[in-house]
Amino acid sequence: MKTASTVARRRPTRWRTMTIAAIAVAGLFASACTGSSTGGKGSAASSGSAPPESSTATPVSGGTVTEAVQGLASLDPQGVDAQDPGTGTVAKAVFSRLVTLGDDNSFQPQLATKWTTSADGLTWTFDLNPAAKFSDGTPVTANDVKASIERVIDLKGVNASLFTPISSVTATDTNTVTMTTKAPLATMLDNLTLLYIGPADRINQADFWNKPVGSGPFTVSSFAVRNKVVLTRNPNYWGSPAHLDKVVLTVIPEVAGQVTALQTGAVDIVSELPEDQANTVNSMDNAAVVSSKPGAILSLWFNNKKAPFTDERVRQAMWYAVDWETLRKSLYGPTAAQALAPIASAVFGYAAQQPYTYDLEKAKQLLAQAGMPDGFSTSIKYVPANVPQLQSLLQGAATDWAKAGIKVTLVPQQSAVWSKDLKALNWDMTALENSSRTGDADQILGRLYTTSANRLGFGDAQYDQLVTDAASTIDQSKRQSDYAQAEQILWSKAVGIWPLEIAATYGVNKRVTGFVPDPSSVVDFSSVGVSGS
Q1: What secondary structure letter does DSSP report for 412?
Q2: Domain assignment of residue 326, yes or no
Q3: Is 329 within a domain?
Q4: Number of domains in the chain
Q5: Which residues contact 524 (CB under 8 A, 6 or more apart)?
Q6: Is position 14 within any domain?
Q7: Pick from 13, 144, 362, 424: CA 20 to 30 A from residue 222's CA?
Q8: Tell me, what's the pLDDT at 321?
Q9: Can you give the pLDDT at residue 310?
Q10: Rounded to an integer, what is the distance from CA 138 to the centroid of its chain?
Q11: How far is CA 419 from CA 227, 295, 383, 392, 451, in A?
Q12: Could you give the CA distance from residue 155 to residue 452 in angstroms, rounded to a whole number?
């Protein structure tokens, strides 16, 4: 065995910080695919805009912070809701992970005190902190790690593919866990930042996730599905204690209602603000707007198995037919940039592609070549509340598509219905946001677009091999090259349309301290507090 080496992994320099206050931030993101307990991904630029003015104040011990969320269907971060922002926010507060990403984008130990890899890169060994305990006082053991990984894989949820390269997990002893992979896995540590550890003897019980027990800085006091969750400070937390006594996530589906609640002081944090509401928040005396670095990609997927989208010329025509840049400027302003890849520019593996510029005549020519000179009719399913300004964007796109003879019917859906249709490929087109919470391209390129994922009816053997190769080598230049080629395949074949790279925009009460804006709208409350003033 050898201590895992620290391999520098430079992130692309092309990214723009979108802030309402127009505070410019630029820099390099770096990372490594392996590391020791202090092993890192290198330095990173600061994220987003300056926090609210009071967030630099010294927090007091105690107090309550309330966040408004659009939905909260589950507290289970190991299954189908693992990518939901509300579920992720609760998970960060209630559970611990083997490793986390630090503010400088380096891997930091949490439950694991150190990790080693074998010479062939197939075996990873993690030593657990013997002081780590669940909130009920029971110790966190290697068997809990083993059971949590196996459950994520068995549930076949949104993060399952990140862990299927692991062929076996062994609890070597109480505080040592060994993982063997089918091939070298460069993204092992990245993936483990999304593994939340629960007690092995309870995580498969039906009622456990209504009031789960974790080893994080907070515990679940109460949970009402699609209504509210109340978290209280964990008195038995083995790490640095949280500042707050209580965190409340309350469901307010409409953004206008969230902003009103922020103004009245009923809530302290709202996320995913559209530009017009952000302007309203900026005018408030008690709140300010805070934006993350751009980290989410707006994705309009085609069902590649359903005519006419089986023809890439039709898919390309759909992209050329819309003046996306004008829509971006009018609807999003500085909170979004033109996307030049299927992943965000801050993610490792990003490679800028040649943009599809607005060209109505070219769109018509492509349709004619595909045997559709008079256009066709189709539809797009979406959840209006999921992405700010989404409905207005799609309405504008539909107007442009109509000029090319393409009639697109907008089909707004409730989140649960949309999710069911999405998984069943019961759609012509669909709209969603994608973000990499690991900071590595694999979480998007490997999880969503491979033939085996079958998320949008797309399959390409060359693409699959490139993504597989990128995940199984520690040569960072080779990984970058493989990802770039994979992105070029998705882009040139127009598997989907990726028009915008979006920053997460929050409204935050000025009494809140320690708030760090996250591109995926997942709030980390471990260092959040309230000022004493």
Answers
A1: E
A2: yes
A3: yes
A4: 1
A5: 89, 92, 93, 516, 518
A6: no
A7: 144
A8: 98
A9: 98
A10: 31
A11: 19, 22, 9, 21, 20
A12: 16
Residue 226 lies in a domain: no
This prediction has a pTM of: 0.77
Which residue is associated with the tokens 């620290």?
6
Cα 156 to Cα 158: distance, rounded to the nearest angstrom:
7
Residue 531's pLDDT is what?
92
- Domain holding 393: CATH number? 3.10.105.10
DSSP, res 125 = E
Reading the block at residue 89, the tokens are 């926010």
- Phi first, then psi, for residue 50 (nearest 5°) are -65, 140
What are the DSSP E strand ranges found in 252-405? 269-270, 287-302, 336-338, 376-382
Q: What integer pLDDT is reported at residue 439 of this predicted model?
A: 84
- Tokens 């004619």 identify what position? 368
Residues with pLDDT less than 50, the chain? 1-54
182: nearest Cα among 122, 126, 121, 124:
122
What's the CA dihedral at 500, 503, 506, 511 to 10 degrees? -170
Other Cβ atoms within 10 Å of 22 Cβ, number:
10
Planar angle of CA 357, 409, 459, nearest 5 degrees: 60
Residue 196 backbone zone (phi > 0: left; psi -120 to 50: alpha; other: beta): beta
pLDDT per residue as tens digits for the range 111-138:
999 999 999 999 999 999 999 999 999 9
Q: How far is CA 529 from the centre of its chain?
A: 24
Return the beta strands (E) in 372-488 as ranges. 376-382, 406-412, 429-435
Report CA 258 to chain centroid distance, whole Å.
22
List the beta bridge partners of residue 432. Answer: 299
Find the helix packing angle between 324-331 and 390-403, rounded to 10°: 150
Buried b (16+ CB within 10 A) or exposed e, 470-497: bbbbbebeebbbbbbbbbbbbbebbbbb
Q: How many angstroms separate the CA atoms of 193 and 227, rounded? A: 28
Give me the domain span that covers residue 413.
Answer: 293-503
User: Residue holding tokens 């992943």?
Assistant: 343
